[in-house]
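Think of the structure tokens as a kind of shorthand, similar to the way a musician reads notation: each symbol stands for something richer, in this case the local conformation of the backbone. In the example below we present two proteins back to back. Begin with the first one, reading the sequence and then the tokens, and try to describe in your own words what changes along the chain.
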Amino acid sequence: MQHGAAWLGLVSGAKLWHVAAPHLPRPSNRECEHNGRIDYVTAKAEGVEHCLMLPGETIWVPDNWWHATCNLDPYTIGLGGQLWLPGQEKNFALRSERPPIEWTPSYGPEVCA
């Protein structure tokens, strides 16, 4: 998948990342079969690099980098976010197709003053 820059901090578990630069053709899909074993021949041919993420580590994925992940533990918990880039609508539902978000803060403006 490609999208705007993203980051993820891992709280528990282990996560295997497959990443490739955006100028390369889209790599083949990565699956979490065989406990995350890596096909190094295919990865090298496609320019895919790997890293193993452990609790307490944070990863930054730049704009439009190809990436896929595989959770290696039964419970893998992380916290992260991503930036939205104009033109990325093809990867996500169009805004007109999303239900409207209605939100009323439970605090007043004095909390932020």
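Once you have a description of the first chain, move to the second and do the same.
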Amino acid sequence: MLAYEIVRKKLDGEANSEGEIRALVDGFVRGEIAPEQMAAWLAAVYVRGLSDEETWWLTKAMAESGRMLDLSAIDGIKVDKHSTGGVGDKVSIVAVPLVAAGGVPVAKLTGRALGHTGGTADKLESIPGMRLDLSEAEFIGQVQRIGCAIAVATEDIAPADKKIYALRDKTATIASIPLIVSSILSKKLAGGADAFVFDVKFGDGAFMRQLEEAKALAEGLVRTAKLAGKRAVAVLSSMEQPLGHAVGNAVEVAEAIAVLRGEGPTDVREVCLTVAAHMLWLGGVVSDPQEGRRKAEELLGSGAALEKFRQLVAAQGGDASIVDDPKRLPQPNHRAEVRAEREGVVTQIATRRLGLLAARLGAGRLGARAWTQRRGFGCTKKSAILFRRARCWRRCKVPAPLRRSWWRKGRRVLGLGRKRLPCRWWRG
């Protein structure tokens, strides 16, 4: 069928068949479908939407556009997790070894920083010697040996998604739930896992700012995964302020290690335990998420999760001594404190702006800007906390003293008021 007719049907509100969607995706990847035609179809989807079946057909075509990992050589139910991204999100660094310590194999393909959100790969590569460019044989072999592995997805994993996402970015069609679902799930399916936990963020620092939008995305991910024959659970977590105190690369690894030790910020621990509880349940080692929660708490308390993280780092060539001494992680040359100019209560944190500020200072990836593992922030105060004038609320770790303009930008991220406001942390 001509691409013209496929586009026309969707523009007119008609459903596309599986064969039509497959022809469109395959043709676009091969260069036989013009970008203008694919852009027109994406715009039609943005306006008209896709049925659950159409979303699944699109997801399947995108997943099968490249290499599909076969994890059948690994015993047990392989469970993966995915976060829709946020500021200070270091959950994977904790959840992967925590779940593996509980006997569920975790073979995780991860990504790099995108926009104002950090990337697990960038954070883990701040560990001296840590490799994430594992071959398929290394990836599978490591999971067989120690129960977990984290690697960067190669270019041949769901290549259709990369081409389509680039076009969506240029045509303002990013914020389409079916297109987001297919983008996320196509990569997860190509990764070969049997079950998934989706951590869908909402709030100022998330891609889905409104709670209702996040719910719609969570439901779409679970429904489409079911059509793919996979078990899946989605949880909703707040990104109305940074998760934890650390925002950056090495600083977030250090904070994750603190959580694995049974310490660390309460909010990070809570999200990690909730995600791990559902992963343990999907992996079949507990009867329900409540038992999974208790088991995850035991694994943190006993030190088993921390030991598994040590094994993970060592297996991928990293310096495992950072587990006992996080100060061996890359350190900044300069530290600066941003202080409040008046007394009040923290009523709001511009989380997205904070993430962009961290990226512009070099802790993320924005265009051609220099990127480094040493830079980051430590948010010492968060929402609903009483704040006094001249008290430090954020510590910056940078290679050189900050210019005056950066101090102004740092203060604008914090909202001070007189009344304590309720602080939403977690919705499941």
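Compare your description with these statements about the second chain. The domain at 3-49 is CATH 1.20.970.10 (Transferase, Pyrimidine Nucleoside Phosphorylase; Chain A, domain 3).
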